[in-house]
Fold each of these.
Amino acid sequence: MKKTLFITGATSGFGAATARLFARDGWSVVISGRRDKRLQALRDELSFLVPVHTMTLDIQDSDAVRKAVDALPQNFRNIHTLVNNAGLALAPDAMQRVALSDLHTMINTNITGLVNVTHALLPHLIRTGAGATIINMGSTAGEWPYPGSHVYGATKAFVKQFSYNLRSDLQGTGVRVTDLAPGIAETEFSVVRNGGDRSAAEAVYEGTVPLTAWDVAEQIAHIANLPDHININRVEMVPVRQAWGPYAIHRDATQPSPVPTQEA
Ligand code: NDP
Ligand code: 8X3
């Protein structure tokens, strides 16, 4: 029987690549995002291969998510894999200099939106049972701090812990949960993060070899197609050219730090 993929954030980047890869492999696909034109174009492209259902919605809106899931056509209800991929970073500057509204948007999308979609789809996944898979899109930013990551990285730390906790709740149902945490990958992510400034976005990838959306899609397909008895808890995947830096040490000769006093 054909399996069904439900993926959020299918209008670009990882989501669009994953929808294409799964469709090529014969899966029915439910694709969602806010930009309807892009969704319809992807549907037109893929519906020659497999059944495609589109859901134009903002995952921050729990009522819209619930209604769209309730209205899933019968032949798309047998969901095998949910990929909670939709998400974004904004405000790439120090926390003290960014707009509060951008921070709320990241929380409302990357945390609340992901919870909205998961809660609405859990009954379907539990009904599917053995082999059903939830892949939550985390990030290296959820594990490793860096300047300007503030709320974004914290939302991805939520994704990691939520994935682990959900696994505990789903014990015995056969439903698998993975936190997939990529490092730097070239998509529209940096255009969004830099408020539409394409040259700032290009500078992020200049002179290096980032992951591609296809690399991430292949990892998603690998996890979803594993035998039913295997659960991958977390995958952190980075380009070879990305590794950790040392602790940052603040040095300022004009303002020496006070020498700690020794307590007797
Ligand atoms: P893109 O910007 O290319 O894609 C983001 C997708 O999320 C779009 O399809 C967008 O669709 C959708 N989206 C954003 N906000 C909402 C919303 N409120 N409701 C519904 N859909 C929404 O970025 P990526 O493909 O790179 O990012 C996908 C995921 O991977 C994100 O969660 C991101 O945090 C994560 N990630 C990205 C990395 C990278 O370096 N690129 C690395 C690690 C993780 P639309 O605008 O049409 O709604
Ligand atoms: C996106 C990867 O390095 O911009 O989650 O935080 S990074």
Amino acid sequence: MSADALISTYFATGTLPDLPRDPYIGGAFVPPAKGAYMESFDPGTASAFGTFAAGTAEDVDHAVTSAVAGFALWRDTAPAKRCAILMDCARLLRAEADHLAVVESLDSGKTLAEAYGDINSSARLFEYYAGATDKLDGRSVNLGNDNAAFTSREPVGVTAHIVPWNYPTSTLVRGIAPALAAGCSAVVKPAETTPYTALMIAELLIRAGVPAGVVNVVTGTGVEAGAPLVTDPRVRHVTFTGSVATGVGVMQAVAPNVTGLTLELGGKSPLVAFADADPEAVAEGAYWAIFSNAGQICSAGSRLVIHRAIHAEVMERLLAKTRALRFGHGLRGPDMGAINSERHLATIAGHVDRARARGVEVLTGGAIAQDPETGKGWFYQPTILDNLSPQDDAVLKEIFGPVLAVQIFDSEEESLALANGTEFALAAGIYTRDLSRALRMARRVDAGQVTVNDYWAGGIELPFGGNRKSGFGREKGLEGLDAYTRTKAITLAV
Ligand code: NAD
């Protein structure tokens, strides 16, 4: 079915045909052991449109057992063959892009264009890591003539992937693509509000030639399905993407098994704009940095740290753009989609309401809203909070919505102190025409990735990850393979 046909079907019936609902284990959809299901909601209408399994420890046990068997097969599959299969995964993902993008937009609330972007970058991830499959070489080491010594990079084994709801497809694939390239197997636990694309992709991978059992998906809540997965002693690496609080809990939970861990957590990333920066480029950059995906991005530019000399001009341009922004149901092609859940919408509103109550200036937005066409759904107005102090909660706390916090500075030293002034350190953007200053700032700002004069520059080829409470470990790029391989040293006395 084309995207248009799927969208018409959805608006006519309130659901989509052929949505998967059972855990995907050992190459088949298997009803959950306890037989319980949960409802899935369209954030653009606030109505339920499907059900999916509320998986439990029994399903997780089944999935990990299947992944242990899958690992034995996949590890011994020749790298060149794994490469060909992963290329086929990319091809199938592109072939199914219409279906996947419509489901993703509906399930998450993001715009259809954003959903296509995620599917496309996920296909690129499979292609990129397919190319690495047959290049995971070791090195030979000279111990003298009596010994032949070399290293080999080996897959770690069964890996677990705990995925959040803001980028259900691309966050999943940036974990499983390198894991599969390295020869690992995987069990995935998608977020409880966005279960479908993980199930669809697992089925698609097996269709592409990945052996049954190598990729398994158990849907359900974090407590019922996520916790038993990360603590299963057969799991050798956990890749967790989500909030700081849950990430800290997962870190504690995996400690007794000494399981490897990648933590991709929250952020409060600054876009630092100097007096010599192009005001239009800053306004445009800040607009997309905070309003893409309705601000529900770990690396969103949620703070605009701006020199006093250009503050007024940039704010005028940014306000004009923000007031012209059209939000609405993701499938109707708006500039900005919905907030993923009613609970998260209330969290965003709480942050802004408290800011207003303590006297923060709300330049625009600042309220819950509905789809202008239907009067339904979970939306938040694009919001700008101006001239905040470094200690304000709206500066220090991750809001994870379309809410920009503006901070004003007078000197480069002050800008750096403001940029590094939260417990997060995920991303940063620097806007200046002075290359020396750009490089000086890029070196001194605490973040996993720094962009200059283009906030979202980058791609799957560059490593991504945080410092401090934004987590540790790197995904994407060749560094993304490190978590899924172990180096073994081998000597042969001759
Ligand atoms: P969350 O921590 O509530 O949930 C994330 C996942 O963890 C979900 O699948 C959930 O079911 C699961 N989970 C919950 N309790 C668990 C437990 N005890 N054991 C195992 N799994 C458990 O986060 P969220 O609200 O879904 O996502 C938003 C957060 O994710 C934000 O803080 C955002 O910054 C962060 N995030 C970070 C990145 C990154 O790459 N750094 C990317 C996307 C999102």
Amino acid sequence: METLVLIHAFPLDRGMWQSQVEALADRFRVLTPDVFGFGDSPVPAGGWTMDSMAVELAAWLDSLGIRDKVILGGLSMGGYIALAFAKRFPERLRGLILADTRADADTPEARATRNETIDFVKANSAAVLIEKMLPKLLATNSPSEVARVKELASKQSVEGVVAALVALRDRPDSTAAMKAFKFPTLVIVGEHDAITPPALAEAMMAELPQGTLVTIPGAGHLANLEQPAAFAEAIRTWVMNAKIHES
Ligand code: MLT
């Protein structure tokens, strides 16, 4: 069975993939690791970077005995990590999924906002941060999805969230590297994504030699939570049409 690794968004944990794990388990061995500092994963001494998380991921796959190529996907922050992995370990990928994410680095203004957010989280908590972020995360704001996002974020530690904000702030630009990707890449974006809007998905598509774009209607930034069935179907269809198993 093919391995599909899915990496979660900020400031959530692997629990955000529950629906996709259930929907895709018949076809894939779905693995959903926690990023450093989230869920059950500790923050490494000295913090982490997108690249060090990619290295950790490769070591973790090794520890599971997974030497075959995998399909690796990530949403938003998870997408940044998936891009870092694709740059460092291209030979380990059968396909890449970049969902509600972007390839460029933070602008000076965005970096300044990260620093303000770091101060805000230190003075408050992840639960308070998510209240502030919520208006931009979901398009439909259904009470059950809002509750789910709050539940996932509220569990996260201040230390973990701060370390991630540093990694997000300092991430490199991956735009140029995408031109050399020799594996099929699925770009997914929520139609109403207010954080990484469809224009950014199209910008990535312009660089990707083997890109497929799927826009998910009725979804915002956390497209997999808001439209779980459509998100899972996008992956299933792409794997079939892009002949991933033969690549
Ligand atoms: C995420 O959803 O992971 C974050 O919005 C990523 C970011 O802030 O750049």
